[in-house]
Amino acid sequence: MTAQKQEGAEAQPSGPGLSRRPRRTLRQHILRRLLVIIPVALMALLAAKMGWLPKAADKVQFNDLAWFDNTKLTEHLRLLVKDQGLLDVPRRCVVPIINGADPAHATHVQFLVRATDGCPGIDGKTATAFTILVNKADRTLQNDAGSPGHYHPMPAQ
Length: 157
What we know:
Elements: H1 2-11, H2 26-50, H3 52-61, H4 70-83, E1 94-98, E2 107-114, E3 126-135, E4 140-143, E5 152-154
Antiparallel strand pairs: 1-2, 2-3, 3-4, 4-5
Helix pairs in contact: 3-4
């Protein structure tokens, strides 16, 4: 008889305030999920529209070794050019061109502004905006915006 009492005692909680909760309905389950999903989706859309996602990705990906990776360097320079207000066109309209024959201590990155696919300007034409001189070894940047051929320092981050 004591074995039957123990089995019965395990099945139902005992003590003050220890009653079983009623099961959630399907409607409650869906509402709780929506209360989490909708704000997260709205925050992701806001971050994408404000440009926070590319900046966050750049902070994570662009490290000391990325200076020698031309793909990461050009993406970093696109963000930097846009953030510093050197160009007032969308990022997708800026085309960086790296001269592969340059040495690592004086790499020239020429920035062109294209005028196709919804970019401002005369269709089919590209214009040279400025050149950035990159010293990959010292991790320094210089640009000639506003004064072609005369380079002045610009912050790297």
